[in-house]
Design goal:
By secondary structure, the protein is of the alpha/beta class. It is built from 13 helices and eight strands. Helix 7 packs antiparallel against helix 8, helix 7 packs parallel to helix 9 and helix 11 packs across helix 12. The radius of gyration is 21 Å and the shape is globular.
Length: 329
């Protein structure tokens, strides 16, 4: 078999490389699939790291993300894997328009999101943190998460998917917002008396993205829920053990678009079979699989704004008022 890996001239500065394991985690494309495409289609074209292992330039990783997104819409590998980045972007626009959030009713709010994107582009994390702090003080934390951080995260994710921003810039954004929300959660914990439901938050073992989970936890906490977060990538058996040990009423899971929908559905079915019927499973995120879920005792939370309504319905059916929740500022 021919080896399609690239060899750089000795005087060429090597590009930033991503290991094949990281590419698998990032895109959801198995290592074996990447190797087959390399032989069959001539793409991707990995380099070799210092250990002689396949490693990929970030530009190829961005292209693979689009390939994975198009595979989820039903496209065939033989048609799309050989395509260049611009061709993939155009096809994605035609097949599945990028999920840019609906513009806020206020023109000023839309300008605020654009200003945040500009701060990220300038790598001004101090300015971005100040903007988030100001939004929280003016609107309240709940509205800040729903109206600013939620839509802004979608914009950043789509820009990353298109290759408009680099991986490290997406990481800068994630760390900035994570720090902001964790500080806010600390303040909420001091001010709110916890009530039911008891919610266990995590992601499945193959889901590395945790920002959506943290936004949901913030809104749950503002509604006085008793929250326990396991972070990301928890094995199913440990989710079940943790739910039992914590006396959880609900297991809340977040899904990004990078996971294969069939994998999401199959794993959720396994988890449903391992948890007691009394423990609900609530899911949210951007994965297409969530629109095809039909399991009992499983609730799809379509938007962050729906969390208070879902909780009110749960409390109404379980005889809990949740009166300790903060006012809806």
């Amino acid at each position: 078999m021919p080896d399609n890996t690239l060899t750089l001239p000795c005087d060429t500065q090597p590009p930033a490389l991503v290991s094949i394991a990281s590419v698998e985690l990032d895109t959801g494309l198995p290592k074996d699939t990447l190797r087959v495409w390399e032989r069959r289609y001539g793409f991707p074209k990995p380099l070799r790291n210092t250990f002689g292992e396949r490693a990929y330039p970030v530009e190829q990783v961005a292209r693979l993300r689009l390939v994975q997104r198009l595979l989820q819409t039903g496209q065939r590998p033989r048609h799309i894997v050989p395509m260049e980045l611009a061709e993939l972007q155009a096809l994605l626009q035609d097949t599945e328009p990028l999920a840019v959030p609906i513009k806020p009713a206020s023109h000023g709010e839309w300008n605020e999101l654009q200003a945040c994107m500009q701060l990220l582009g300038q790598h001004d994390m101090h300015g971005l943190r100040q903007t988030l702090n100001q939004a929280s003080m003016q609107r309240g934390l709940r509205a800040c998460v729903q109206e600013v951080i939620g839509p802004l995260t979608t914009l950043v994710g789509e820009a990353w998917m298109r290759g408009d921003i680099h991986v490290y810039e997406e990481h800068l954004y994630t760390e900035c917002v994570t720090t902001f929300l964790r500080r806010a959660l600390g303040a909420v914990a001091r001010d709110v008396k916890k009530s039911t439901p008891r919610i266990l938050l995590t992601t499945l073992p193959t889901e590395p993205h945790g920002l959506g989970l943290l936004m949901a936890e913030t809104l749950f906490a503002l509604e006085a829920c008793d929250c326990t977060s396991l972070g990301v990538q928890t094995p199913l058996a440990d989710i079940v053990r943790a739910a039992e040990s914590q006396g959880s009423d609900i297991v809340a899971l977040s899904f990004s678009a990078c996971l294969k929908p069939t994998h999401v559905l199959n794993t959720l079915e396994q988890l449903r079979g391992q948890l007691p019927d009394s423990v609900g499973i609530w899911v949210g995120g951007s994965n297409p699989a969530l629109s095809h879920i039909g399991l009992d005792s499983l609730l799809v939370v379509q938007r962050l704004q729906d969390i208070p309504t879902c909780l009110a319905l749960w409390r109404g059916s379980h005889g809990s008022s949740g009166s300790a929740a903060l006012p809806r500022t």
